[in-house]
Amino acid sequence: MNRRRVLTLIAWSVAFLGWFDLPASAGTIFGHVHARSAAESTAGADTAGSYGSRRYKFLEKIDYNALRDFVVNIDQVEAPPSADLLPVRDKVTQRDGAFVPHVLPIVVGTIVEWPNADDVFHNVFCMSETTPFDLGLYKHGDAAKSVVFPKTGRMEVFCSIHTKMNCIVLVLPNPWFARADDKGHYTITNVPAGTYNLRAWHERLPSKIKKVIVPAEGQVQVDFVLGLGDTTSN
C-alpha cells in the first residue's frame, strides 16, 4: 500500500470519528428489565378476588410477563446532536393496522418518517403541546411524510380513522438509550465515563432510577424490575 493511500485512509478515519463525535473514553451499560405485578410482590396476596363473578367477565387483567417496549436511558443529561451534523432520521411504519414499532425512543431533533405500508388510508396526528401535528390521509404508494421532534417528552400519536392505532415517540435529551428486546435485554454503547442516573421506563408503569458508574472502558450491568408495587429508586 503506497503512502498516499495510507494518508487517505487515515483522513477518512479521522473524518468518520469526528462525524459521529464519539467520546475519547466510553463504556457500555447492559442488563435486563422486566415487570412484576403488585400481587407478585406481596406474599400470600389473593389474586382471585371476585374475578370469577359474571359481573367482571369483561375485565382483562394485565399479563405483566407479556409487557414489552421497555426503554432504558441516561436521565437528566442534555447532549443533543451537534448542529454541524446531518439530522438523525428514524421511522415508524403503518403496517397491518398498527404503528411499528409501538414505542420509538429518539434523541431530540430527530426526523421521523411515517410510511404507510397498508393498502388503506391511515392518518398520523399528535396533540402534544410541544409538537402537535396532523399529516392528513395517505396510503401505500404515497410519499412518506415526516416530522421533526425538537422538544423532549412523551408524544402520543394516533390515527384519526382507526381507534386502536396508537404509538409513543419518546423524545430524549441525549443519545444514550436503548429499547429492550422482546426478552428484556438492553445494551447502551459509547457512554462517556462518569456517574449517571439510569432510568427504566414503560408506558404503563412508574419509572425506576438507579445510579450507575460507567467505566472508561468495559461494561457495567444494571437490571431493573418495574411494577406498581415497588416505586423505589436505587
Major sheet strand order: 6-12-11-8-9
Head-to-tail CA distance between termini: 54 Å
Task: Please state roughly what percent of the residues sit in beta strands, choosing from under 5%, 5-15%, 15-25%, 25-35%, 35-45% or over 45%.
Answer: 35-45%
Based on Cα principal axes, name the global outline: flat
Largest sheet: 5 strands, mixed
Structure description:
This protein has 234 residues and is mainly β. The chain has 2 domains: 26-39 and 56-77 and 179-234, Immunoglobulin-like (Sandwich), CATH 2.60.40; 78-175, Cupredoxins -  blue copper proteins (Immunoglobulin-like, Sandwich), CATH 2.60.40. Helix content is 9%, strand content 41%. It has 2 helices and 18 strands. The protein has helices at residues 3-20, 38-41, and strands at 26-35, 71-75, 89-91, 93-95, 98-100, 103-107, 111-114, 122-126, 133-138, 145-148, 153-158, 166-172, 177-179, 185-192, 194-202, 205-214, 219-221, 224-226.
Write the layout of secondary structure elements.
Elements: H1 3-20, E1 26-35, H2 38-41, E2 71-75, E3 89-91, E4 93-95, E5 98-100, E6 103-107, E7 111-114, E8 122-126, E9 133-138, E10 145-148, E11 153-158, E12 166-172, E13 177-179, E14 185-192, E15 194-202, E16 205-214, E17 219-221, E18 224-226
